[in-house]
Design a protein that fits this description.
The complex is a heterodimer of chains A (431) and B (352). Chain A is α/β, with parallel strands linked by helices and 431 residues long. Chain A has 19 helices and 10 strands. Chain A folds into 2 domains: 217 residues, D-Maltodextrin-Binding Protein, domain 2 (3-Layer(aba) Sandwich), CATH 3.40.190.10; 200 residues, 3-Layer(aba) Sandwich (D-Maltodextrin-Binding Protein, domain 2), CATH 3.40.190. In chain A, strands 1, 2, 3, 4, 9 and 10 form a 6-stranded mixed β-sheet that branches. A 4-stranded mixed β-sheet of chain A has the order 6-7-5-8. Chain A is globular and about 65 Å long. Helices cover 67% and strands 4% of the residues of chain B. In chain B, helix 1 crosses helix 2 and helix 4 packs antiparallel against helix 5. The two termini of chain B are 40 Å apart. The chains are: A alpha/beta (431), B mainly alpha (352).
Chain lengths: 431, 352
């Protein structure tokens, strides 16, 4: 039963040029869309050790489905949106691609994505995912058109436990303790926070957890959905708290150093803390110093609550996958997407570290280091609300302006100016 | 095929439009026809790959479109005309004027630095004589590196951590940490790609970090000027310099009264090419700062790119096209002396 048909079946045509044209035009039409067969093109951003980890996940899929061949293309993160848009516009999109909510809703609005509602219905019913994560994967018209594959929790304050002990500081559990700790290291001549603002996005990593803790999850979601403006009292208060943090504890080079520089400078001891995502656990030993021991010389505590009245919520981000409606192998594409969202696939990477499985059925003990386990424990399981990365959620011009405006806030601490800039570009609430 | 027969036909009509040249000898006309036949393939490529996209860009700047809903001039179902809205949207945004100001800084500083440094280097190399080829190669080498790579290299030089950044390492060895205010000028060293001070011009604030980006571009581009000037200097008759020396000219006077007048054309070419280069600069800014911090180093070409390729959730490509058209107008205006020296200048010589 040879249903594995070569995708590029070359036809005998006399002219050489015509051969090329016809082969590319007709290639791939031979595996029926109902069969679990064909070659799938998958676009991802992961390179190096992350690329290897993803390939292991894909290997698991190909073992289960020997008739499906998956070709992974690695695309630089910041070029993904433009590349996907171009290929979708040309009608030749990758079958499956990594995507953030902003671009998912844009593509969904043009009816270019596979509807995955049935898959999600099953997952919710079986307890694989909480409802709040389904909202992250929603397209423009209330259909769920993406699967969550790689989770990440933010608002983690990374530090070196041995150094913290030397400074005589207890792990802060309240906001006041948090500020006191920052003040204490500053008084000892150590810069409190490594920031990495040159890359832009590390500043947004600060804004998300502060917004969730000060303004609360309701305001956070309303702001994300464009239901309230940036001049909402709760939002203004959150950015005032953030601006004060920047003024009092951000280093002089907050905008000059990038993420990797900041991460390694903290590991070296130039800075005491770094507010970042769970991925620091794998990046610091890999990029800075192989002797860093997660759990021993690298640990984190969650940014403490600002106000006990505000309901707890976890800042999350992460990577989703979408399937193109224009795929020639719909069954195979759906199978791969369902696999990527499954506990089975996610367990493969979770075992390798630097990864949080969004699927709740991935056992807690598969994570390799204590930091990975602790971060995975913070992953929202329906008990706390998930606040998905605000600017990744919104996307587009608002995202770019937001990152720039945060850079300006680091410099001039003018919340008024920040709010004005944001309200000018984000007119969704005004409409 | 039809085009090939019509092209010579229009060609013969074109000179007829010139009143002075109305009656032409038949022999000349036949020559024209053959000339146009030879030019036709190139003209077709030019029309297909330069003229048509340019026309499309201009047209598309009057429509609302995005990469996902592209504008096609031949398909009316893709037309969402917005009049001059894209232009008013561009011209009324703070981001545009901020980028325009940064582009202006590039436009003024970059050509002056390129022309000045290339002139200095080529005259010195010319003066050196014996080792000239070695030095010429050294200065031309950076030209062979792509601008993006040059940007990455200089990002390391500028890194604010003295254990990584060469510049700050040197300053640390010299124990230099400069920070001073001189009237409207504020300067400080250290954060080379974030904030090295500003110059308050009253109507706008010139962020000096732009200069930190211009410098690597000059480093990479000055080789072009060195090639051009060296070629010009090699055609300079030695007798001219010798006689100037015998007449009692000192070195400086030789440069001013003999070399520079001789290099008039290479100077114009280098200057205008670097003006065009400065206005369309994108890669080095994108690689080194991505227009940041905030929008301090955003130039027009980067803003254009963002409108078309980064702000994908909104149909903003029309605004990008409008910015492109505005930039093209400025560029044609600025490049006019160059174009004239290439085309008009040639026929002018013939007339003489």
């Amino acid at each position: 039963m040879n249903i594995v048909l070569r995708r590029y079946r070359v036809r005998l045509v006399t002219a050489a040029v015509a051969t090329v044209l016809v082969a590319s035009a007709c290639g791939g039409d031979d595996g029926g869309s109902g069969d679990l067969a064909g070659e799938l093109r998958v676009v991802t951003n992961w390179t190096g050790s992350e690329g290897d980890a993803f390939q292991k996940v894909i290997d698991g899929f190909e073992k289960k489905n020997p008739d499906i061949h998956v070709k992974v293309e690695q695309v630089p993160f910041d070029q993904t949106q433009a590349l996907l848009t171009q290929q979708f516009a040309q009608g030749a999109p990758p079958d499956v691609s990594v995507a953030l909510p902003g671009i998912i809703r844009t593509l969904s609005g043009q009816h270019l994505l596979l509807d995955l509602d049935d898959t999600w219905d099953g997952w919710i019913a079986d307890g694989d995912y909480p409802e709040s994560l389904r909202q992250v994967a929603e397209g423009a018209e209330d259909a769920t058109e993406a699967v969550y594959f790689k989770g990440n929790v933010n608002g983690l304050i990374w530090y070196d436990p041995t150094k913290l002990a030397n400074w005589g500081i207890q792990v802060p559990t309240t906001w006041d303790d948090f500020l006191a700790a920052a003040g204490k290291v500053k008084a000892a001549g150590v810069e409190p926070f490594a920031v990495g603002g040159k890359d832009g996005w590390p500043l947004t990593q600060w804004a998300d957890p502060v917004l969730l803790r000060v303004a609360g999850p309701d305001a956070f979601h309303d702001l994300a959905d464009g239901k309230i403006g940036w001049d909402d009292d709760r939002v203004v208060q959150a950015f005032t708290v953030l601006s004060d943090l920047m003024r009092d504890y951000f280093p002089k080079n907050a905008l000059a150093a990038g993420f990797i520089d900041a991460t390694c400078a903290r590991a070296k001891g130039t800075y005491a803390f770094q507010n970042q995502g769970a991925f620091v656990n794998s990046i610091a030993p890999a990029e800075c110093d192989k002797n860093i021991k997660p759990g021993k010389t690298l640990a984190f505590f969650p940014m403490p609550a600002y106000d006990e009245q505000v309901p707890a919520a976890q800042a999350v981000s992460g990577d989703l996958f979408i399937g193109a409606k224009a795929t020639k192998h719909e069954a195979a594409t759906r199978a791969l997407l369902e696999y990527l969202g499954s506990a089975e696939a996610q367990t493969i990477w979770a075992k390798l570290g630097g990864y949080i499985a969004p699927n709740l059925k991935v056992p807690a003990d598969v994570y390799p280091t204590s930091n990975d386990q602790a971060a995975a424990k913070l992953w929202p399981k329906g008990d706390v609300e998930a606040g998905y990365d605000l600017d990744d959620w919104i996307g587009g011009e608002i995202q770019v302006t937001y990152t720039q405006a945060l850079g300006q806030l680091v410099r001039d601490h003018s919340v008024d100016k920040f709010v004005t800039t944001m309200n000018k570009v984000d007119t969704r609430a005004a409409k | 095929m039809a085009q090939q027969t019509t092209t010579p036909a229009t060609a013969t009509r074109m000179p007829a439009g010139d009143a002075r040249a109305a009656p032409r000898p038949a022999r000349r006309r036949r020559g024209d026809r053959v000339a146009w036949l030879f030019v036709a393939p190139l003209a077709l490529i030019f029309a297909g790959f330069y003229l048509w996209p340019a026309v499309q860009t201009i047209l598309s700047s009057f429509f609302e479109w995005s990469l996902l809903a592209p504008f096609d001039p031949l398909d009316t179902s893709t037309w969402y005309p917005v009049g001059t809205d894209n232009y008013t949207a561009a011209l009324s945004s703070d981001s545009f004027w901020n980028a325009a100001f940064n582009s202006l800084v590039w436009l003024i500083v970059f050509p002056v630095l390129v022309t000045g440094s290339a002139l200095l280097v080529s005259v010195l190399i010319w003066h050196l004589g014996r080792f000239a080829p070695v030095f010429r190669t050294v200065f031309i080498l950076p030209m062979t590196i792509s601008l993006a790579a040059a940007g990455v290299i200089w990002s390391f030089v500028y890194n604010s951590d003295p254990d990584v950044g060469l510049l700050n390492a040197v300053l640390r060895v010299l124990r230099l940490d400069i920070a001073f205010d001189l009237g409207p000028l504020h300067v400080r060293t250290g954060e080379w790609l974030a904030d090295i001070g500003s110059l308050d011009l009253g109507f706008a604030q010139l962020r000096l970090v732009n200069l930190a980006l211009i410098l690597p571009a000059v480093w990479a581009f000055a080789g072009f000027g060195v090639v051009t000037f060296t070629a010009g200097l090699s055609s300079l008759p030695g007798e001219l310099v010798d006689s100037a020396r015998i007449d009692g000219c000192r070195a400086g006077q030789v440069v001013r009264h003999v070399l520079i007048p001789h290099l008039r054309k290479p100077l114009i070419i280098t200057y205008v090419v670097s003006v065009i280069f400065a206005l369309r600069t994108f890669d080095i800014v994108y690689v080194m700062t991505e227009g940041g911090p905030a929008q301090d180093t955003t130039v027009l070409a980067l803003l254009l790119w963002q409108q078309a390729f980064a702000f994908l959730t909104e149909p903003r490509a029309g605004v990008g096209a409008a910015i492109a058209v505005l930039m093209a107008v400025v560029m044609v205006f600025l490049a006019y002396p160059y174009l004239r020296s290439l085309m008009g200048g040639g026929s002018g010589d013939e007339a003489r």
